[in-house]
Known about the structure:
The complex is a heterotrimer. Chain A is α/β, with parallel strands linked by helices. Chain A folds into 2 domains: 13-83 and 160-258, Rossmann fold (3-Layer(aba) Sandwich), CATH 3.40.50; 93-158. Chain A has helices spanning 52-60, 99-109, 114-127, 143-156, 173-189, 201-207, 235-238, 242-255; strands at residues 12-23, 26-37, 41-45, 67-72, 75-76, 84-87, 161-165, 193-198, 210-215, 220-225. Chain A has a 6-stranded mixed β-sheet with strand order 6-7-8-3-9-10, sandwiched between helices. A 4-stranded antiparallel β-sheet of chain A has the order 2-1-4-5, with helices on one face. In chain A, β9 (210-215) and β10 form a beta hairpin. The N and C termini of chain A lie far apart (44 Å). By secondary structure, chain B is an all-alpha fold. Chain B is 80% helix and 2% strand. Chain B is built from 10 helices and 2 strands, in the order ββαααααααααα. Chain B has helices spanning 13-26, 36-47, 50-83, 85-100, 107-114, 118-142, 146-154, 159-196, 201-211, 215-247, and strands at 2-3, 6-7. By secondary structure, chain C is mostly helical. Chain C has one domain (36-243): MetI-like fold. Chain C is built from 10 helices and no strands. The longest helix of chain C is centred in the last third of the chain and has 38 residues, at 159-196. Chains B and C meet through α1, α4, α5, α8 and α9 of B and α1, α4, α5, α8 and α9 of C.
Amino acid sequence: MMSHNTTNDNDQAVAVRDVYKSYGDVMALRDMSLDFPRGQLTSLLGPSGCGKTTLLKIIAGLLSADSGEITVNGHPITGPGPDRAFVFQDFALLPWATVLRNVAFGLELRGVAKSEREAIAEKYITDVGLRGFENKHPHQLSGGMRQRVGLARALSVDAQVLLMDEPFAAVDEQTRRKFQEDLLNLVKHENKTFIFVTHSIEEAVYVSDQVAILLPRPSRVSEIIRPEGFRHKDADSIRRDSEYLDIVDRIWASLRTYVE
Amino acid sequence: MKIFGYQLPSLTSLILWGILWEIAGQLKLTFFLPPLSAIFSTLMEIGTSRVFLKALTETGYAFFAGTFLAIVIGIPVGILMGKSRLIDELLLPWVNMFLSAPLTALVPVMMVLFGFGMKAIILTTTMFAIWIIVLNSRAGVMHINRSLIEMARSFGATPMDAFVKVYFWAALPEILSGVRIGFIRGVKGVIIGQLLISIVGFGALFELYSGQFMMKHFWAVLIVLFSISFTIAEFLSHLERKVAYYAAQR
Amino acid sequence: MMRYRSYLLTFLSACIVFGSWEIAGRIPVSYAFPTFLETIAAFWTLLKNGTMFVAYFETLKPLVVGVLISSFVGVGIGLAIGLSRMSDWLLSPIFVVMQTAPLAALIPLLVMIYGIGLTSKVAVVIIMAMPVIVLNTGGAVRNTPVSIVEMAQSFLGTRRDVIFKIILPAASPIIFAGLRLGVSAGFIGAILAELKITPTGVGDIITYSRSIADYPSMYAAIMSIILLAVIFLNVLERIENFLFKGAKHVYASD
């Protein structure tokens, strides 16, 4: 298993090279290059309009770049692929399907046999703490539980890269904190690369091995911060760690001029 | 409505109206309003008669044939409009026009083109029912949550899989509501057809009974017809409520 | 270019439809199917010799009277339904049943009661137009957002203030939409009355030209009434969009 604290230049799970993307006259991404080290969590942080969700969807293969290249494990991508799984901000669950079918849906689309995919789904339902809810429908669950379903679905296809688009934006603050702690555990124990879009500075610093700060007009990576000093601490004490607080303050100082 | 702290279900006031009707009928206030009890006993008499059953089958046949056509044509056309911008822009003005146009005016055209028989009545029913079905199917497809579409793509769904497993079900609540309103319009269409095109089915009974001033018979048939159409509407809105929870989520 | 795309396509679509109408008429698909140009010519003749104007004066009479009556009475009943639980319980079911029922079946009865004159026709328009007006008004009033009503109460608004300054303005977009749907249903009623009860106005042109097999005139009359209704309803919708910009258009019922 790859340790999440070691990294070298040759071990990038995802690499973005010179990507341009525009919508009509609006330039969303300009000459964007960024590396995502294997086994680590990288946040894309920035004010609205900085193109962070666009970049994530390009990596997912849901949008295509105008020019430039994205490689996953060294292979250029052409569209969505089994090496990446997406966690949606609004969960994107099938409202007419049970939790079990929702979690197994990614595998269902890949043609995995029913009994096999349901066994895998069961495992991840237990992992995310939803055991006993297998036969409920999404509308019977709280927002936080729905996102756990979305997470279990992404985990069950066993992709190496997990793409998360503001996954905790639509859940309440307390659930959100619990999620962040769970995410730290997930990064530690699963050998996966996480790419995480957020607009919360605290959240980014708390969960990330690497924070890429994106600025708008023109969209660019202004800074990459690696909050390493407190990674070994337990979930509770990080929020009181002085390095954590300093980094949060520093990022806010550089972003505040961009907030309308 | 609460009485003595007890919640009266909706529609119970119809019982009160029925009682008032009965009293007005017993008082012989007007020739046109016989007592409700007399109407129901007439209903028992004619309910099993050949004339009545024939009218029921004729009307039912025209109604189901007409709405069936509206559904099998309307839903695919609507889905196509929702998926293709070109087809949508070509058809939408016409669909909108026929949705609000007084379609009664087109019934004479049905008559001269398709004859004074069953065919024209069925097509009249279709004409009344189809537009709302097309429009709702279109809206259902267009309103599918974007992230559901992206979800299907990101997990590598084939177009066929995406359609069968995601799009159709996501659009289902709106399609169903189109079918419900289409059915209601279809009932109106079939009766208008039977009154204007050729005097068959329930239309014939209404003409017969009103022509001979048989008020009890007239009301009996009317009550049956209204109950049937109300039951169909309620049944479909029940179905719709069963899937409504997921319409709220987009 | 893109801005004109939709106009262009509408125009193209009209060309396709009228073109196929013309071709189908020339084949002809049926002896009772005139070409598009013949229909337009007949329309022009009817317009020029004044027949059309006389006819529409007749047709619009029951429509206008009926819609006016249904509007005033319908909005009144709707307000009562929306404001009082008692009248909601008492009256709503009647209009809900009317909304789903094929009310055309009542025409023979109306003829028996009111004869074959104007009164019957007005009555047909009323029974068609009223339910949708009542149900939309009732639904709109009942569903006034609770928060703004509570706001008014917390600033010590009286019941009267709440009704006239909060509920009515909040409900007016849907009430207006209900009125528009009422007009649409009224058109159906007016034409039904003229075709079923006694042929007058446009219904007379349709019935008469059918009986003498003057199909172009028949089609022209039908086309004119549909066009009139569609244009009028469109104008109403534009007014609605202008008056209630940004208001949510949620219809309480079909």
